[in-house]
Each structure stands twice: as C-alpha cells, then as structure tokens.
Design brief:
The protein is an all-beta fold. The protein contains no helices and 25 strands. Strands 14-18-17-16-15 form a five-stranded antiparallel β-sheet, with no helix packed on it. A four-stranded antiparallel β-sheet has the order 5-6-7-9, with no helix packed on it. A four-stranded antiparallel β-sheet has the order 10-11-12-13, with no helix packed on it. A hairpin with a 3-residue loop joins strand 15 (about 155-160) and strand 16 (about 165-170).
Length: about 290
Amino acid sequence: LYVADQGNHVIRQIDIATGVVTTLAGNGVAGDADGTGTGAQFRTPAGITTDGTNLYVADGANHKIRQLVIATGDVPTLAGPAPGSNPSGNIDATGNAARFNTPLGITTDGTNLYICGYGDTIRQIVIATRVVTTLAGTGGTGDADGTGAAASFHDPSDLVTDGTYLYVSDSGNNKIRRIDIATGVVTTPYGPPAGSTAFGDVDATGSAARFNNLVGITTDGTNLYVADTSNDKIRKIQIATGVVTTVAGDGVSGDTDGTSARLRAPRGIVSNATSLFVADLNNHKIRQVD
C-alpha cells in the first residue's frame, strides 16, 4: 500500500504481508522540493495513485502534481509550478505552466492522470507529454449535469476510473458523479439528483441513496466503495443496479475492529479485489475491511 501521510508531509509504503511501514519520500517537514527520498519535500499531500512503476501524488498545498519513481525514490514535479513556487490557479497548459487549486484526488488509467480538488474541475494530464486539459467543470462551484464546461461540482475530493468512465465523489454536493471520458458528459447516478445537495445516511437505490461528505472512492470493477466520511461508514454501490449498502461502520464515530466496527472520519480507500484498505483519518491508522 502507498499512503499520502498528510500531516507528516511524507509518502509511506506498507508491506501488506508483513505490516512493515517505511517512508519512500519526504522528511517530515512541509516544503516544496524535488529530490530523492528524504531530499524531496511535500506540503499536505492529499491523493495518491500508481501505474506500478511510479506513484503520482496530488501535492495539495503546493498546488501541483508530483511523480515518485518507486524503485529509486526520485521525485520530480510532473505538472504545476516549479519547486519553490506554489501559486494556485486553473490554467490548462503543459508541465510547469499549468496551474491547480489544491488538488486532492488523483487516479490513472496508465496513460493519463485524472485530478480533482477545490478548483471544482476535473482535469486530465497526459503523462507522456505533461499536457493538462479540463475534462469537466467551469471552476465555479455548482451542481449541474451536462457536457464539459456545462457541468459543475462542489469540492470534488476523489475519483476512480474503470477505463470508460470516471466516478467522482462530489463531496460538497453529497453525491457520486459519473463522467464519460470520451464525451465529457457528466451525470449523477448515485445520490440526490443534480440541483439537490440533500445529505443523510440512507441505503437505497440510485437517487434515493444519501451520503454525507463522502471523500474516498475506489472500484473492484463491479462495485464502487466509498469512504462516507461524516457518516463514519464505508458504503458499497453496485455499479449496474445502483444499490447502495453499508459494509462497515454503524454511523457512530469510534475506533473498534470486528463485524461491529467503528471508524472516525474515514477518508482514503483502495481495493485489491480481496480487501478494502481505509485511511481512517481521525484515528490515524490504516484499517482493512475483508
């Protein structure tokens, strides 16, 4: 597992089989430096994804996307302002000329990166060329379905792709949005329909389901799994049917293992098709859900 350890400003690695934790990059001091291993610095890294060779990190407070070569620990800046400069913005360009506003969520299909955050847009980076474009959203807060810039979001916090669609946890709107990557068409398949930001804690189907400040999202190809942060739960969504159920947590903030588990503001989540691994934010630990 790879963890963006926000408060420590480092990238950690966990060997699942042994539980051994090591630091791949960063030195525990908030900063903005490219380098190798502890010679690199991050400032509140938020999201992380991998293509198996590299890690890609949404370096939130530095407003940039960093690359980390797993084998060597080398950290360059892939897109966003060069090290030592961290202005925020919303500019489509190439490499260091691009600008982001507190990127939070990041995922990859192996060729492209997809990023979301407080800029209220969904951005795409072609890894090979470092070209940054906007796939959907206007940069203004809203809650509208549509195509490309006709769609709007409110603090989208994480996203995942199955190669055809992006699924976005639109945190401020308390719903899951779906984006057709080829066309840029944005719809709301799970949670309150566009125009309603009703929050709650309801297991149901499609638009009848309710979430509260959902953050992390992952998929095993058949289901989505969501860290429903303010409900202190892990929710499961059957992609084909839209049925939403609760797989862990009872809605009460706590720190309990077992089939009656409790979590405290779960945030990050990833699946390896056998288990879910959850960054249980306010418990400062990584939880496993089988």
